[in-house]
Each structure stands twice: as structure tokens, then as C-alpha cells.
Write a structure and sequence with these properties.
Blueprint lengths: L8 E5 L10 H9 L4 E4 L6 H13 L5 E7 L1 H8 L5 E9 L8 H5 L18 E2 L6 H5 L5 H9 L4 E2 H5 L12 E4 L55 E2 L2 E2 L1 E2 L1
Helix pairs in contact: 2-3
Length: 244
């Protein structure tokens, strides 16, 4: 799908341990097709602070916005996506909590056999990933050198961000699309959540959320040769984002 005069703006929201530069590969693809793309540099200190940072970028756009979130960024867009300028939501292997829920709520009881993210004990209220396990768990589709750089440049993730509760989930009122990574090693998932169908993953309270793209590795956006789909109705790498 190529951009035209009515194409929406796209706003990208990153997750924990990283910053917005991780979206560069996706940004390059979308801008090449003529879309206007903005990337939120959410500080990942608190959910409400991240939602406020996201609303600043949404409101700076000159028209309707497709809001895209990866990982913890899904919780952020769930909270910020009720903004009147948001036309649609896209979750890329992301949390989608319901009202009153938080990331902590969704990860409290992982399914049996789910991989355990190598998150170290908090230090002064912040979380980091174990550097030695970063590549395999967080950046499995990236070259070792790039994964090592990311491990050594982690953004501290505030524990308050994981505890932030959703006030009004945007996915209940906005058109939404969801991509599931079947071999995600960071976010717990049900083994039955595999292409082409399956019940709602435990990190998503959206009823009958349907995985729509089979992936062998987490779709971390830094991998410019493995981008998420170009638009909510677009397709990429053998799959499509399906509307709920």
C-alpha cells in the first residue's frame, strides 16, 4: 500500500530497554513510500509519563494518526490511543492490557513452559536485561555485534512503568490490528497462539485476538530486512495484520 493524499500519519512507540532509534528500519520504509512518520522518545519511567509524551507527538501531527507500539509500547498506546486524533492502533508483539490492568498484571502468571525474560533484579527502581542473555532473548534476529551494542546501551526501564494501570483501553473503541511473534522470548504467550489462529494471548485482554504473522524470532524493529507490515492493511514477509 503506497501513500496518497489521504494516507494517515504514523506514530511509532518503542518498548522497554531501548529508545526510538530502534524504529529506524521501519521509519525508512514508510517514509520512502511517502508517509509522514514520527517516533516517540518515551522515557519509560511511568506509564502516564509515557502516554503524555506520546500524546505530545500525536497532537503535533497534521491529521489522523495510526499509532504503532512494540512490546511495552503496546501498553503506552492502549493508554494514549484514546486521543481524538488516533484513527487506528497497531500492536507489534505488544502488551494490550484492559482497564485497570498493567504490564505487571499480564506477566504475573505466565503459562507453563513460557520463556522467562532475563530481567535482572531492580537497581534503584530501574530494570535491565542480563547482558549475556540479551542477544538470544531480545534481539535474536540481529547480528551479534549489533545485539552487543544494544545490550551495552540499554535504557533503564522504571519499575513504575510496569505497574502503571490502564484507565481506558483504546482498543475497545478504536480499530486495532495485532501481530504475534510465535517464538517471542520476552513476552509470555500461549503455545496455542500460532498461525493461522488461536485464542487470545495472555498478554492481551482483547477477545479472540488472532495471531496473523508467523515469526521465528521476535520482530524487533531494528532489523530493517524484517520489518513489520507497512500499514494496518499492508502485508510483509508472508503475513498480514488482521483487524479486530
Amino acid at each position: 500500500m503506497n501513500a496518497d493524499a489521504t494516507a494517515p500519519n504514523v506514530v511509532l512507540v518503542h518498548g522497554g530497554f531501548v529508545d526510538g532509534s530502534g524504529w529506524q528500519g521501519v521509519y525508512d520504509l514508510l517514509t520512502r513510500d511517502g508517509y509522514h512518520v514520527a517516533v516517540v522518545q518515551n522515557p519509560t519511567l511511568s506509564l502516564q509519563g509515557d502516554a503524555a509524551a506520546t500524546r505530545l507527538i500525536i497532537d503535533a501531527q497534521d491529521g489522523p494518526v495510526v499509532l504503532v507500539g512494540h512490546s511495552y509500547g503496546g501498553a503506552v498506546l492502549t493508554e494514549a490511543g484514546t486521543d481524538q486524533n488516533v484513527a487506528a492502533l497497531v500492536y507489534i508483539a505488544a502488551f494490550a492490557p484492559d482497564k485497570g490492568e498493567s504490564v505487571n498484571t499480564l506477566i504475573a502468571d505466565p503459562p507453563p513452559g513460557a520463556p522467562v525474560p532475563p530481567i535482572l533484579p531492580p537497581t534503584d527502581g530501574f530494570l535491565f536485561l542480563d547482558r549475556e542473555k540479551f542477544h538470544a532473548s531480545f534481539a535474536g534476529d540481529l547480528p551479534a555485534e549489533q545485539a552487543a551494542f544494544m545490550a551495552d546501551s540499554q535504557v533503564p526501564w522504571g519499575v513504575d512503568a510496569l505497574a502503571g494501570a490502564i484507565t481506558e483501553p483504546a482498543w475497545r473503541s478504536k480499530p486495532s490490528w495485532y501481530l504475534v511473534a510465535t517464538e517471542d522470548r520476552m513476552i509470555p504467550r500461549q503455545r496455542s497462539a500460532s498461525c493461522p489462529g488461536g485464542p487470545a494471548p495472555p498478554w492481551s485482554r482483547r477477545p479472540a485476538a488472532t495471531p496473523s504473522m508467523c515469526r521465528n524470532r521476535p520482530p524487533w524493529p531494528r532489523s530493517s530486512n524484517r520489518p513489520p507490515p507497512r500499514s494496518p492493511r499492508g502485508t510483509s514477509h508472508g503475513g498480514s495484520l488482521r483487524h479486530r
